[in-house]
Amino acid sequence: APVKVTKICCIGAGYVGGPTCAVIALKCPHITVTIVDLNKARIDAWNSPDFSLPIYEPGLVDVVRQARGRNLFFSTDVDKGIEEADLIFVSVNTPTKKSGVGAGFAADLNYVELATRRIATVARSSKIVVEKSTVPCRTAESMRTILEANSKPNCRFDILSNPEFLAEGTAISDLLSPDRVLIGSLQSPEGIDACESLKEVYANWVPQERILTVGLWSSELSKLAANAMLAQRISSVNALSAICEATGANIDEVANAIGYDSRIGPKFLRASVGFGGSCFQKDILNLVYLSESLHLPEVAAYWRQVVEMNEYQKRRFSKRVVDTLFNTITGKRIAVLGFAFKADTGDTRESAAITLIKDFQSEKAFVNVYDPQVESEQIWMDLQEASPLMPLETIKKQVSICSSALEACKNAEAVVIATEWKEFKDIDWEAVYAGMNKPAFVFDGRLLVDAERLRKIGFRVTTIGRPSAVA
Ligand code: UDX
Ligand code: UDX
Ligand code: ADP
């Protein structure tokens, strides 16, 4: 019979584990949820008395405020968390490998393996182990092998795959009313029981018909597939944006017309300077690697093109900036508004802004950056990582971090909108214009601002997916 879950442990207090398990705690007051992490600074931040949490996510503070200390706990005592739990989420990071076999494509599973081995070593009673991190197909199988090879007598491990589909910036609402919850298990009686136990946890707030139960491999592949298809839509619309710029069609109008087809649907068709985030590129590269290792080179090439189109879109945008500024930006000041990979998050992983700024740096421009959420430290770290051979001092001579959009735009030749923060729509554009060198240019990489209104103020506006106005 299925075990009734009363104690959950989540290994990894990051963007996925933190919000997910906080919401589980909120919705299941009868379950004790402990989130553990090796990173003490992170745990301290989750426990901070003034709720200055380590990640910014709208609504998260309210959830943590309600549940923390009641049935939600954050701790660095990983072993104790494992020992006490009936069900363990493994929600550790799975970055793309930087070296070794599959470097640049395959996921680095070292963190998953270490966490799994820790479970095997420490557990003294049976556990349901849930793979939450996005991982390549067959990881559950490896986890199972490790656990079974190391388990003690009377101690069984059942593995589930339960990928998380939340998007950053809307994590809490995504978790509170998910499109679906996906649970993969072995189709053995034990596997089905374990699946039932986890299903019961979600059933506390998710309607039954939205909880899908499938085989382990389908679950793992579905996560990669969902992200690959979402990213593919953006690359498709971005490829069309290049045609629009060259022909005089308008990508807004095209996307809108396409989206009315109920088979296509209106969402996720917003042309941009390129997708970012920790998932899309990583998961597609995983899929490419998987396809290649299965000897399916045509399939690999198909998915790889989605990432290549994204790289092209970023390059194309930087080039358009340079071309428009009379073919040189050497010594010119460019204000980059937004550094996060999308609005409503402080996360910068794979953000298009990083590539744009690097391009502007190599053209010897000066760059002023402003983002309402990203910490300066993070910006310096990302720019350093993008140019590993350049001393930070040199980078700092070219790039300045500003504390407001207005300040960033002062004395600049051009404003580049890299992230769709709502506040950029509402800045005092008249004041921005007054402070800039003339002619003053705006490059909207996010279809954010009202180009006509800005033109009336005097700006020369270039918008992604629209031809450059013959000014
Ligand atoms: C994504 C998936 O949406 C989520 O289901 C999965 O669990 C994790 O990966 P996330 O990366 O947090 O979530 O954000 P998402 O909203 O998907 O945006 C990803 C990138 O695509 C951002 O850079 C965003 O700006 C860009 N994007 C999104 C577009 O350029 N155009 C769009 O129409 C939508
Ligand atoms: C298509 C468009 O749907 C229509 O809007 C346009 O005006 C003309 O082109 P059509 O070619 O008549 O219409 O048929 P459609 O139903 O789109 O199918 C096209 C092909 O795709 C068929 O061979 C169909 O079997 C195949 N298909 C469709 C799939 O293989 N899988 C699917 O999920 C859907
Ligand atoms: P994600 O976006 O997938 O949530 P993050 O990098 O934000 O990824 O979070 C993953 C967290 O997992 C990090 O805080 C990291 O310290 C933690 N972690 C990694 N390995 C272990 C481990 N073996 N035990 C405990 N925590 C771990």
Beta-strand percentage? 5-15%
Over all CA atoms, what is the radius of gyration?
A: 24 Å
Number of domains in the coordinates? 2
Number of helices: 19
Helix share, percent: 40-55%
Largest sheet: 8 strands, mixed
SS class: alpha/beta
- Global outline: globular
Please explain how this structure is put together:
- Keywords: NAD, Oxidoreductase.
- It holds the Pfam family UDPG_MGDP_dh.
- Its EC number is 1.1.1.22.
- The chain is an alpha/beta fold and 471 residues long.
- The chain has two domains: 7-206, Rossmann fold, CATH 3.40.50.720; 216-471, 3-Layer(aba) Sandwich (Rossmann fold), CATH 3.40.50.720.
- 45% of the residues lie in helices and 13% in strands.
- The protein has 19 helices and 14 strands.
- The strands form two sheets. An eight-stranded mixed sheet has the order 3-2-1-4-5-6-7-8, with helices on both faces.
- Helix 9 (216-247) packs parallel to helix 12 (297-324) and helix 12 crosses helix 13 (352-362).
- It is globular, with a radius of gyration of 24 Å.
- It starts with 6 loop residues before the first strand and ends in an 8-residue tail after the last strand.
- The mean pLDDT is 95.
- It binds uridine-5'-diphosphate-xylopyranose (2 copies) and adenosine-5'-diphosphate.
- The site of one uridine-5'-diphosphate-xylopyranose (UDX) has 19 residues, from helix 9.
